[in-house]
Design brief:
Rossmann fold, 6-phosphogluconate dehydrogenase C-terminal fold, Alpha-Beta Plaits, about 45% helix, about 15% strand
Length: about 375
Amino acid sequence: MTIVQGLDERAPRLSGQIRVVGAGLLGASIGLAVRANGVDAILADASPSQLRLAVDYGAGRMERDDDDPAMIVVCVPPDVVADVVAAELARFPNAVVTDVASIKLAPLHELQERGVDLVRYIGSHPMAGRERGGAISARADLFLGRPWVICRDHETPVEALALIEDLALDLGAVPIEMTPEEHDASVGLVSHVPQIVASALAKQLVRAPDAAVRLTGQGLRDTVRIASSQPELWVQILAANGGPVVEVLDRLVDDLRDVADALRSPDAPGSRREIADVMAAGNAGVARLPGKHGQDRRFAQIVVMVDDTPGELGRLLSELGEIGVNMEDLRLEHSPGAQIGLAEISVLPEVQQRAVDDLEARGWRIASV
């Protein structure tokens, strides 16, 4: 795996025309972002209404007969990626074509089986998204700081690879080169299985007593946040990446079964250790997650009590800036009906105590550090 670094992180690299096929969340977000850099974004979509909506939101324009894009970005559901990529390669013989599907092997194998010349095709995948889809949810900053996987092979021309890298960098993403096999195994762990886990846990809420649901805190909300994703799309993704997903699920099921067995007889020899070992291994796993800008550096947390009145959160963030403390991350917790919320602010460990002292001096109540 190779992380590609850009020399100039500010000046736009791409110009001219970019054709975006599929005007949903990713396609419209790409259109908004490249247009902000002065690129002529051409939108196409099988759904006329979705296309018009994306155009109305400013993500690009309708196609014309004289269009001659240097790059085509295919943003369609996984089960039609191969069809659309093949059609775009044939229609625009001078363009480099990429797709942003969350699986890479299945479309590649389908194209290879058809005998399509893939010299101008490079599969890619921005690790970005939202729980809700469609152009209405599109954002130009959707890709900022997010990994953008690029799957090249030995036949990929350098200039074609450079175009895809430039696209990712112009959108504020971090290009990472991986093989299709590495990509699908990786997203199976970090994206596809979390979706299944979130959905399976959220399913338990369907028949839960109202009294239990009313106790919901931020822990459950964080865990099931992505459970609102589109089932139709995820059926396609999971079916196409079943092998890597099943491997992770099998290991997860084994761990859950071990914990369940231990809880059935918590006083049996070794039961408490089994539970503790799983929890400790979870701590070790979380510690490996990259932080801000992909860094592995750990941050310290400050939990500030914020009154549920207009402008209070904004005042807190402004005062953090006034005391010279950079907020690395922010997590909010607020229970329905409560008159106060909790803002968990991540900062560098070396400024944590100074931030606490300065905030308290300004009248803020610190719940914990």
